[in-house]
Amino acid sequence: MTTTFPPPTETRIIAVANQKGGVGKTTSTVNLGAALARHGARVLVVDMDPQGNASTSLGIEHHVEVPSIYEVLLDEKSINEVMQISPESENLFVVPATIDLAGAEIELVSALSRENRLKNALTASEKTFDYILIDCPPSLGLLTVNSLVAAKEVLIPIQCEYLALEGLSQLLGNIDKIRKHLNPELHISTVLLTMYHRSIRLASQVANDVRKHFPEQTLTTRIPRNVQVSESPSYQQTVIAYDPGCPGAVAYRKAARELAERGVQ
After folding, report:
1. What is the per-residue pLDDT across 148-169, written as a single tens digit (0 to 9) for each?
2. Would you list the domain boundaries of the chain?
3. Three-class DSSP category at 95
4. DSSP-derived 3-state class of residue 25
5. Sequence-separated (6 or more) residues with CB below 8 Å from residue 232
6. In angstroms, how far is CA 13 from the centroid of its own chain?
7. Selecting from 2.30.130.110, 3.40.50.300, 1.20.1640.10, 3.30.565.10, what CATH number does the domain 12-263 have?
8. Measured between alpha carbons, how far is 97 from 104 in angstroms, rounded to an integer?
9. The pairing of beta strand 153-159 with beta strand 187-196
10. How far apart are CA 57 and CA 49, in angstroms?
11. Measured between alpha carbons, how far is 194 from 191 in angstroms, rounded to an integer?
């Protein structure tokens, strides 16, 4: 019997952000979302990256004819109208991204209340969720700003490799600015160490450095380098579904439990 993770007392809206590419941002969004959903939580994943990799990994069609977050940001559709249920779990819902989203930053430049489009759309939704996970693009543009304005928490995946912390100061600066001017509730709640290779000494050094910078926020669980984690998106699945017994899937389930337990402490 599947154990149920402790539910939050209110919806946790978490932006998964890091402007550096290749750190496991989308991978962490979809696998944490899938793990939470399989252990009793109602989860919405919002794909804010024009590449649509989160949509692919969760088995959701996202070609140009599919209604997506693009139409929501332009006030053409409600978030309920574009939401789909993932084959991963009946508890896991997805707002897909299409390539049209790449043009949204330009189209929203002159729009009224442009930074609040996602927040307003989520507020207007009649559906209730335990978690809303927002997969941010690897940049600090208007799509990421919308994500950070809509969220209450930020989860930062950091890979255990050389230069892991480089460029992070820019993201932290942007989070500070958004907290001051647009969203006073925003805070970094979680840091997740990814691509950890225990046999490489540098990985341990990076993990220690990250824990010094973020002693309260860094999860105990580290996500190992694991080929099944990399393979699963090509089958339009998370690693939780693709190979539930592999080290990557086990680690993401542990991280999801930790995320849930920290939220109710």
Report:
1. 999 999 999 999 887 778 778 8
2. 12-263
3. strand
4. helix
5. 57, 238, 239, 241, 242, 243
6. 10
7. 3.40.50.300
8. 11
9. parallel
10. 13
11. 10
Phi-psi region of 195 (alpha: psi -120 to 50; beta: other; left: phi over 0): left
Which residues, 6 or more positions from 13, have their beta carbon under 8 angstroms from its beta carbon?
Answer: 122, 131, 132, 134, 150, 151, 152, 153
User: Which whole-number Å values give the CA distances from 93 to 43, 70, 79, 189, 219, in the listed order?
Assistant: 6, 17, 11, 23, 25
3-class SS of residue 178:
helix
Helix (H, G, I), strand (E, B) or coil at 72: helix
Both tokens of residue 241?
């579904």
Which tokens hold the place of 21? Answer: 């590419």
Q: Please choose, from the candidates 221, 193, 219, the residue with its C-alpha nearest in 3D space to the C-alpha of residue 207.
A: 193
Rg value, the chain, Cα: 17
Query: What's the CA gap between 25 and 136, in Å, rounded?
Result: 8
d(C-alpha 7, C-alpha 112), whole Å: 36
Q: Three-state SS for 208?
A: helix
* Alpha-helix residue ranges (DSSP H) falling in the chain: 25-38, 53-57, 69-73, 79-82, 104-107, 117-124, 142-150, 168-181, 201-213, 227-231, 239-242, 247-263
Tens digits of residue pLDDT in 81-140 = 999 999 999 999 999 999 999 988 889 887 778 999 999 999 999 899 999 999 999 888
Q: What are 76's two structure tokens?
A: 């053409």
